[in-house]
Amino acid sequence: MKKIITTIALFVAVISSAQGQFEQGMGKAFQLWKEGKNTEASDMFERISAADKSSWLPNYYVALVNTTASFGIQDKTQVNALLNKAQNALDAEMIKDQNNAELYVMQAMIYTAWIVVDPMTNGMKYSGKTIEMYTKAEALSPQNPRAVFGKADFQIQGAKWTGVDTKPLCQEVDKAIGLFATFKPQTPFSPKWGLDRALEAQKNCK
Amino acid sequence: MKTIILLFASLFSLTLFSQTTISGKIVNEKGVPIAGANVYIEGSYDGASTSENGDFAFATTATGNQNLVASSLVYETSNIVIDVAHFKNQTIKLRDNVNTLDAVIITAGSLDSGSKARVSVLKPLDIVTTAGSAGNIVAALQTLPGTQTVGEDGRLFVRGGEANETQTYVDGMRVPQPYGSSPNNLPTRSRFSPFLFSGISFSTGGYSAEYGDALSSVLLLNTIDEPDQSKTEISVMTVGVGLGNTQKWKKSSFSINTSYINLTPYQALVPQDVEWKSAPQALSGEMVYRYNFERGIFKMYAAFDASQFIIKQENINSIDKITVNSKNDNLYFNSSYNGFFGANWNITAGLSYGYNQLKSDIDLDNLGNAENAVNMKLKLKKNFSNRFKLSFGADYFITKYDENFTRNAGNTFDYGYQNTIGALYTEADIFFSKKLAAKVGVRASANDLTNDNFISPRISFAYKMAKFSQLSFAYGDFSQTPSVEYIKFSKNNQFESEKASHFILNYQYSKEGRTLRAEAYYKDYSNLVRFDSPTVAYNSIFTNDGKGYAKGLDLFWRDGKTIKNLEYWISYSYIDTERLYKNYPTQVTPNFVPDNSLSIVTKYWITDWKSQIGFTNSFSTGRPYNNPNETKFMNGKTKSYNDLSFNWAYLLTTQKILYFSVSNVLGANNVYGYNYAVKPDANGEYRRSAIKPAADRFFFIGFFWTISKNKNDNQLKNL
Fold first, then answer.
1. Lowest mean pLDDT among B1-15, B210-224, B590-604
2. Given pLDDT bands bounded at 50, 70 and 90, which one contains residue B91?
3. Residue A51 touches chain B, beta carbons under 8 Å
4. Which ranges in B206-343 belong to alpha helices (H)?
5. Looking at domain B110-243+353-663+694-718, does it have CATH number 3.40.50.2000?
6. Which residues of B99-140 form beta strands (DSSP E)?
7. Can the keyword Signal be found in this entry's annotation (chain A) (predicted)?
8. Where are the domains of chain A?
9. How close is the nearest chain A Cα to the Cα of B26, in Å?
10. B19-68 pLDDT, tens per residue?
11. Which of A18, A34, B201, B684 falls between 20 and 30 A from A2, CA-CA?
12. In B73-223, which ranges are E strands?
């Protein structure tokens, strides 16, 4: 009897130590990201994704880190490399699960980044697709604040030259801010970002 | 018992958690350290990022032989097997990834547009927002270097070559009749609306072994893989109406675009220099169906076009005007599949069919012809690595052409030809490094009608000299079945294929929104068709002993950076060419070639006005013409040509656009050439009439309305 218990204990210990590794790794990656070490953070997420294929989160963050990193960069070669890396990481998860709203929000972010790099070439090509991705995300998860806010914000940004009425879009931003308050991330590492940007957008609406 | 278990457990955990440190350095091919590279044991959490000096060190619980992965953004990922116990202070070299933006690309001869092009000389929107192009793909391409604007013809003339020396392809399949029919000396248009195409690659020479039966150039058009959304588009124009609809489903989509053009109201308002008895009318449509498979895409493209006009044209040889009543029906269909299979294999298979029927009554004479053309194609490509790709394929063309001519309601003459061309080709793309690349190919073809075979080599190299500049060189041999104007009389004559060789040297500088291209070329023609009569006729005697050359310099500068909201480009072409062909008695510069051509295109976006305003100025020096009053052949030269066009697109709301354009703002009195009388008049002089545009200016006003769920979309890209 004792023998069985010990074996179980040992087994649980091994499992929990593996779980601990995931959490430890994710924690460290977030720490690096917070410190502005984008490359190191992306590397860390990438290593976790290679070791633990069961969670979609590491690849999601590889995509997120590289996409957000691309926004401040002028060098097109570098931007191209970052966005390709982001796209590859996202593709790896999208193929496993086509019903995850966060992945569609991420895809919309990558398209937006392409538009930011070269609006003349990519504007027409990607703006429709960006909206389409947000719409899909919203359909899958109507309460997801990132989907609601992302879609509204993207259209507000475009309103400068499309001349679209921003009033209903600003109402959407308000709605998203409400959703941020009620949104419950499924795990400690699940995406929960976006509130600060939404508040910023709300300020600009007034 | 308890102690044994505990002992076992602790032993087990010891082996499980005993750690080894592995360390080393990551460098590039030149030995320069790479910072921020990701180094880890595959399948474990153990790894590290390299420091500024490229160093890494990390502890691992893994033992024995493991895969060590080293990756960094712009390098090829390395995956090596290491013995964990003995991996300390080792250096790993990462090779440059040749798939990055800053790698060399082969640019000699090709002008690319669209998403796949790394250095776009034309952006997708340009086709339609270039003033003077009026949505005609070919007119936009005529603002690029290496082309000659031939105002009375409208087709693409490339580097001293005749218009039929350019072949057009849609999704890799040949289009046998890319232009609509038009009266003598009035320009034709490309049949394709820019709306359905996402990428254009225009090669002015030295192109890939994949393409054949073209002496000068290929124009490759690719339909959009995936439309952005379902929508309906309505256009109301001074020249007609258009309706488009796109439906998008989960894996497939369908787009249709139809238009009805009738110039009657327009010509009632704007006086024309020619007399139309019935203004040109055309009903046309294009459709694309796409189906996405897991690893491939199937596309079906179809276009139809029915047009007619009746014109009374002055003719220097007759007192009365000549009435031409013309009807043209055209159908084009193609289907293609492009997909991946196995380990990095890519397959392209396609079939195209083109049918063209023309009926023309010229006073009392009747001319009718019909062409059926089929193209089949199979292409396989294997990516052995980023650095070596091999493709090979087969191409098969069948053409049947029948024509009949009835003179003055009398006897009818029937003639025509049938031809098949079979070709095999193979080509390798090789990257020696990020700086040096080559494309080496060969095409073997057999032509049934001309009864000849060719082995045509195609070679190009590119070398990157500095971060933003590179040199390319291309060489190729090309052959083509002679023009239908000749080979329709094949019954009594045996023709041979015409031949050309191209040598191209290209320099390109490209940096953030600015591109400079300079290209020098030499083209050698041989085996050109000659005939002995004043015009081509069934009883002409043909030979294949013509020849010629073309050499020149093309310059292109594009800048969208220096001035905010202003995008402009400048093209300049110098050409020196002579040909001994047709019924030319001596080798001279043909009448469609000006020595110097200059185009300046500007587009300015005014945010406050929600408008885009564009100007295009095309200038070329005079073109040669033959004056039979002079003894020397082709000794005349027209005065220079200039056209300033203007356009204005105004966004009423996001989805409603008002568009206005006018050509030849300055009202230049352009003359393309002269028609001389066949016989001299009483004074012994040959009289002449000038070949001029049908009207001094062309005005266009259009209203474009998009109806879709996404309110941001509009037809700006169609203008």
1. B1-15
2. very high
3. yes
4. 264-269
5. no
6. 110-113
7. yes
8. 1-103
9. 15
10. 889 999 999 989 999 998 999 998 888 899 999 999 999 988 888 899 99
11. A18
12. 78-83, 90-94, 110-113, 147-148, 157-158, 166-170, 173-175, 197-203, 217-223
Look at B125 and A124 and tell me if their CB atoms are within 8 Å.
Answer: yes
Residue of B nearest to A158 (CA): B712
Q: Which residues of B touch A125 (CB under 8 A)?
A: 115, 124, 198, 228
* Residue B632 CA: distances (Å) to CA of B587, B594, B664: 12, 19, 34
Per-residue pLDDT tens digits for A56-100? 999 999 999 999 999 888 888 889 889 999 999 999 999 888 899
Q: Cβ neighbours of residue B683 under 8 Å, at least 6 residues apart? A: none
- Give me the count of residues in chain A: 206
Please indicate if any CB of chain B lies within 8 Å of the CB of A166: no
State the best of A8, A39, A66, A114 to mutate against chain B, taking most chain B CBs within 10 Å.
A39
* Confidence bin at B225 (pLDDT 50/70/90): confident
Q: pLDDT tens digit string along B105-140?
A: 877 777 776 655 566 677 666 776 788 777 788 888
Give the ipTM of the model, two decimals please: 0.81
- pLDDT tens readout for residues B621-647: 999 999 999 999 999 999 999 999 999
Question: Cα(B375)–Cα(B422) distance, rounded to whole angstroms?
Answer: 10
Cβ–Cβ < 8 Å for A173, A201: yes
Query: What is the tens place of the pLDDT at every residue in B647-697?
Result: 998 888 777 888 899 999 999 999 999 999 989 999 999 999 999 988 888
Please name the residues in contact with B259: beta carbons below 8 A apart, sequence gap of 6 or more.
Answer: B193, B235, B240, B241, B242, B243, B282, B283, B284, B285
Q: Is A192 on the interface with B (CB under 8 A)?
A: no
| Shortest CA gap A165–chain B (Å) | 10
Contacts A47 to B, Cβ<8 Å: 38, 40, 45-47
Would you say residue A145 has pLDDT above 80? yes
* Strand intervals (E) in B263-321: 275-293, 296-313
- Look at residues A196, A151, A159, A205 and name the one whose alpha carbon lies nearest to residue A177: A196
Grouping H, G, I as helix, E, B as strand and the rest as coil, residue B281 is strand
Q: Where are the domains of chain B?
A: 17-94, 110-243+353-663+694-718
Give the number of other CB atoms < 10 A from CB of residue B589. Answer: 20
Q: For B49, which residue in chain A has the nearest alpha carbon?
A: A40
Phi, psi of A16 (to 5 degrees): -65, -30
CATH for B17-94, options being 3.75.10.10, 3.40.50.2000, 2.40.50.1020, 2.60.40.1120: 2.60.40.1120
